[in-house]
Amino acid sequence: MRNVFWFLTLAAIAATVALFAGDNQGTVTLFWPPYRIDLSLNLVLLALLLAFVVLYAAMRGVSVLLSLPHEARRWRIRHQERVLQQGLLDAMLHLTAGRFIRARKAAENVVAQTESLVRSERAPAQSNRLVAMAHLLAAEGAHALRDRSGRDEHAQRALELTQSGRRDEQEVREGVQLRLARWAADDRDMQAALLRLDELPQGVARRTLALRLRMKVARLAGQTRLALETARLLAKHRAFSDAASRGIVRGLATELVRTTHDPAQLHKAWDQLDEAERRLPEVALQAGERMLALHGDFTLVQQWLLPVWEQLVRPASVLAPELRLRLVLLLERGFSQTPGQPDAGWLARIEAAQMGNPREPLLQYLAGIACVHLGLWGKAQQLLRQSLTQLSDPQLRRRAWSALARLAEQREDGAAALEAWRQAAQD
Prior knowledge:
Blueprint lengths: L1 H21 L4 E6 L2 E6 H56 L3 H20 L7 H18 L3 H14 L5 H20 L3 H9 L3 H4 L2 H13 L3 H13 L5 H17 L4 H9 L3 H4 L2 H13 L4 H16 L7 H17 L6 H13 L4 H14 L2 H12 L5 H17 L3 H13 L1
């Protein structure tokens, strides 16, 4: 369609020119004493047009001739840029393919060529960023070759070349700083890696890559609290799936309470946890077990275990069997270590749970243990024997038989005590 319009336009122009020139009787007279020259107007117009075309072509030719040195310089610069870019591409390809020596040599060749162009004042634009990237690739190759001195030298040169604060150079600088932190972590120098991460600008330090590295370094350095805080940020940024985030946070929170050394430190670590983390069964059970191992306050443990207990007695409980077992053993251990009778509130909870679900062996066992501590030996014996018919865990069966043996000894029933001890030994 476009060609049709062009043909129509040319036809219209040709028709207009034919109409104007065909009947044009005009003349142009030139007087050059003693001569007189009469020329056709059409001829004069054609001559002027030809003169304009010739003059324009001559001016363009002169302009092109004068611009040849400049064009040659531009071609050389473009050629040099293509050579340098090809060198960087080769370095990255060799690095990706695991040819670290070739990658390092290719990057160092780019550095040498660019520095030569800088000395001859023919350096391409963005030469600082280009050389910094070449230094970074060379440092990456040196790191893979375990050449720490060469790696640090190239990294330092890259940092020096990106000190201007320009946006494009700042991005290269941030990349070098992240690489330095990662290299320190690879060298198992966790303190140096944390220092490198602390040197990052605030915006860079909150990027997912930096947060992942910080969490890994903090865990390896034994700084569980810092790792937990970083994991929370990663979960907030959705760096992991929901299930993975819960698993990581749960593991770090558990490790945080497990590595405490006294009740005060454990209480402080517990206060540093979020409400959602405190309600995690694994975390609460680990905190309770650690508190009892440190001979701390069992009353505080009971408060921590209340959300887990609510999950246990819930009709459609999804609490894992191993967590149910840990909760029962932890409460039994706490009742044994606490002088006097167990807490009345917890006794009421245990009794209500056992009455509400009389066929649950774990609740029967726990209620029997509570009755033992209350001195209700007859009821304790009844509940423990009922639980033995359904208990499948060998440890709980041994503990139930042992409790029955001690009750028989208190009744001075030697035969029953001997039989109970024999059953405990068999389980």
